[in-house]
Amino acid sequence: MDSIIDSLIELINAAQRISDGGFDIKAFLTWKSLVFITLVSLLGPFNYYTRQFCRFTADSSRKGLMAGEGVLVAVKEELSKRGFSSKALECVPEACQTGEENTPWVKRRKKWYSFDSIKQIMCND
User: Fold this and answer.
1) Tens digits of per-residue pLDDT, 6-54?
2) How far, in Å, CA of 59 to CA of 86, rounded?
3) Which of 71, 84, 101, 119 suits a disulfide with 91, CB 3.0-4.6 Å?
4) From the CB of residue 26, how many other CB atoms can be counted at a distance below 10 Å?
5) What per-residue string of b and e applies to 5-25 under the rule 16 or more CB within 10 Å gives b?
């Protein structure tokens, strides 16, 4: 669990470095991709936080960066407070029906989609 929290803290700190360094669009887009992959791995593509991150960072500006950082802070706090449990990770209906609600999303049985198709579904309103 600590390595997950440490990774989230590193991504939060990276957002601050991008903002403090004068906002480089290339750095922002790289950071956005890394965060998206992290959120999908931890929470799944249909989790509230994953969807909100995509919505907020659609604005490729300092405002989108700060909003995306806020989502990461919320995820870090939620996971720090509750750990990996059904309370911290959203129980999607398929998981609840199969009794996998206490299993992190990444370890659940699932139908796999390509990264590009998930990103297109999640990041396009």
Assistant:
1) 889 999 999 999 999 999 999 999 999 999 999 988 888 888 999 999 9
2) 31
3) 101
4) 8
5) eeebeebbebbeebbeeeeee
pLDDT reported for residue 72: 95
| CA-CA-CA-CA torsion sign (27, 32, 37, 39) | positive
Half-sphere exposure of 43 (CA within 13 A, CB side): 28
pLDDT (0 to 100) of residue 124: 63
For 46-65, what is each residue's pLDDT tens digit?
889 999 999 999 999 999 99
Token reading at 115: 């990264």
Residues 76, 8: contact at Cβ < 8 Å? yes
- Tokens 């990996």 — which residue? 84
Cα–Cα distance measured from residue 102 to residue 13, given in angstroms and rounded to the nearest whole number: 30
